[in-house]
Structures are given as structure tokens and as C-alpha cells.
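can u pls check wat happens w/ magnesium ion
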Amino acid sequence: MRSISRRVDQTQEGTETPMQRHTPDAIDARSDEGTRLSTPAELQTGIDGALRKWRRRDRSFMVLVMSLHPWGNPGGWLGDRGTANIGRTVTNRILAMRYPGDMVGQLYTGELAVLCEDVGGAEEATRIARRFAAEASRPLASGGEMATPMVSVGVAVGGGVHSQASEVLSDARIAMQRAAERPGSRVELFNERLRLDLMTRSQSLNGIARAVNDSSFHLLYQPIVSIGDERLVAAEALFRWDKVTPARSGAHHIIALAEETNWIQPLGRSVLHEACRQAAAWTRLSAEELVTYVNVSPQQFAEPRLLSDVEQALSDTGLEASRLGLEVTESSVVSEDAIATLHRLRELGIRVSLDDFGTGFSSLSALQRLPLDNLKLDRSFVAGLSSDSFDGSVVDAIVTLAHHLGLGVVAEGVETAVQLEAVRDLGCDFVQGFYLARPVAAEDLAKRITSHHAEQARPR
Ligand code: C2E
Ligand code: MG
Ligand code: MG
């Protein structure tokens, strides 16, 4: 490939060009005098031209899209001017790296696109893009501060599947978004998997936004029973979509995405409110004390307004605090603030269970300090109790410790009669799992409550 071999030769490590001096640049507004960035329309025309050449001569080309990573200026410590200076320096560096025939343009503010023709293929395109990224990321001085620009670079190799410029640009931008998800300067090469991931992700985010705005979600409730007499004592509320069914629609994926994007705050409030509303309705069916447990993510637990959200949900729905429980994970309760929140919740009369116990890293001495009601033994321990020769020593130790601390033990994920017997023998107090009951709709749990109530009322 004509110009590419030169391009690649210069990318060899240790062969610095004058441009790659490792001295920080001073921002020099004059350095871009006389150089003009191509407009988006010119870029499109250039890419369309490259596509025509590809059709005639089968020569691939690449489009690289680059933006400044927001982490390069965390909290905006360099200010708007500093960011603008970094942007200008990065632009000048990219312009200085052009080869004859390359086009550098601005797509949106802060987003550059580079078109390089006659590129051998994906490997070569990645090498070229890495070189652009390395050059853009050299440290520079701005307003007396040293800054290291971080850039996110997406690359699409044009030809093949593309019929017009906008498709190539869109692929490169998808790859750039993936690069921007990770810290530091990064280069990502487009592939179809990225598009699918992005589609699923944006579909899911739309679904979360809708779930929050028009409550288009529902909760299922999984019974928790006392192990001695299999009496229904509690139910765990579990999030489910109403209408949207993206590829990865399991509660685990949705909650993880909501946590990553901080949608968990409004979503968590809606879930809490709905669970309290439902629990209040159940109290009218039976005098039996049924506690409804709601899962709370670490981000929610760290939010100072959690307590007032809980109080608000209780007062809006008229639910007694003693009928509400929260399930928190070990990672939620490591700070002093978190322990203080636990104390406040329990002072209100709310129960607290430590969920998925055994998967986190809480030390036993830390456990001693946590004001809790129950430990929920993670499913993985229960799964290990299936075989004939199971070793229950770890579970045995956890149960002993929990009882010593005055905590109840809930065995999660009990799927078989053998597991039920094992957790009973090991002294667990409560049990939850598909063997006894799957998560069910609120109406079905209501039927279970009323039939149980009728049974209790029958003369013996
Ligand atoms: P989790 O809190 O540990 O909830 C128990 C999960 O185990 C539920 O999965 C439940 O359906 C499943 N499960 C129960 N019994 C069995 C069993 O016998 N076998 C097996 N294989 N699974 C069983 P689900 O509903 O898919 O929820 C997954 C996770 O998503 C939950 O784990 C919780 O961490 C999170 N989650 C669900 N709903 C919410 C919510 O409203 N808020 C928050 N923050 N997290 C939620
Ligand atoms: Mg849970
Ligand atoms: Mg759990």
C-alpha cells in the first residue's frame, strides 16, 4: 500500500518523529493558522468518494472518529478555557499527522473525524489509529497546569458492507462510544457485536426511562418461609419489565445497567413505593405479620436521601415500618455512614437482611458491628449441598456465627428436596427457592396469604 507503508514504518516503537517529542506542548493558537478542518459535508463527500474507489479498485479505507475523553479533565478542573485549549492542541496534532490525501474534519464540537485511504485492512487501520491516539495523548501545559489529554477513538474500515458515508461514520462513532466507556486513551475497532450491544443497551435504557416515567414495570414476589413449619413469613420483591423485552431483560442485567447509569435512583424509588403499596394491601388480607423485602443497590444505599425516601414511601402507602424489610449487599455496608443508616432504619422498625452473604468480602469482625436482622446465605452455598457427599462445614460455620450474633439465616435458591433437608439439618431458619415457590404475581401471593389465613383459622 502506497502511503500506508510509510505511515506504518513510522509507527515502530522507538522511532520518534519530531512531532513525537516527549516534551509537553505549550498551547499555541497560531500553530493552526492556515489549516482548515473539513466540514461534515466535505467529509461525507470524501468518504463517498472513497467508497466509489473501493467499488472500482477494492481498496479499503478507514474512518477514525476521536473525541476528548471526559475523564481527561475530571470535574472540569482545567475550566472551559483549559478544555478548549486541550481540544485545540489535539486538533493541531492530528492535523500535523496527516498524509497527503487524508482528510481531517470536525463532525460535532469536540469530535474529530479522519479519513485515510488505501489502508490494507483492520490490523493496519488499528495501528494507524493507535498512532493518532498516542500523538493526541502526549502531555501538554495549559494555564500553568500539566494535562494529559485522553482520547476515545473509534475506527471503521470502509468498503464491504457500507453503501454510503453516513454508515461508515456511524460505525466509527459506535466504536468510539465503546472506547469512551473505559478510562484512559483507547482505540476500538468497529465490529457488528458492538452495534448489537449498543442497540440492546439503548433499548434497555429507553425501557428503564419508561419504567420510571410511566411505571411500566411490575414486581414479582417470592415467598420466604420459616423452615420448621413452612409458614409464609416474608416475600422478596423482584423487578420485572412490563412491555419491553430487550435481548438481556433479566433483572440482573437491567439493575446492573441502571446502576451504571445512575437510573437506579429513580427506579429504586419507584420499586420501593410500589412494594410498600402492595404490602399495605396485603396487611388488609391477614393479621399475620408478613414482611415485604425490597432489594436496595449499593448506590441507593449510599444516597443520603434513602432514609427520607423510605419514610415517604411508608407514609404515602400507610404501611407499618415493621412490615418492610430491605435487602442490602455486603459492599453497601462498609462505611461508617452506611452503618449509621442501618441503625436509623432499624430504629424506624424496618428489617434488614444482608443479601448474597458469602460472595462479598466482609470480615467477620465487620459483621459483628452491623445492625442486621438476617443473613441470606448465597445460592452458591446451597447449590453445593446437592450431592450425597456434600460438605456443609462452611454453611454450618456461617449459621453458628449468625446465631451467635442473634441473626436469622435465610437459605436462598433452594431447588431440591435434598437441599431443603440439608439446610434444615444445618440449622437455617428460613428458606426461599424454586423448590418451595417461584417468584409470583402480587395476586397469586394474595391467594396464598388468604388460603394460609383460612387454614390457620380452621378449628384443629
Ligand atoms: P437477589 O436479590 O439475590 O434475588 C434472588 C434471585 O434469585 C432472583 O432472581 C430470584 O428469581 C432467584 N431465585 C430465587 N430462587 C431461586 C432458585 O431456587 N434457583 C435459582 N436459580 N434462582 C432463584 P432475579 O429476580 O432474576 O433477580 C436477580 C437479582 O437482581 C437479585 O438477586 C437482585 O440482586 C437484583 N434485583 C432484582 N430486583 C431488584 C430491585 O427491585 N432492585 C434492586 N436494586 N435489585 C434487584
Ligand atoms: Mg435479594
Ligand atoms: Mg440474593
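The CA atoms of residues 22 and 143 lie 19 Å apart.
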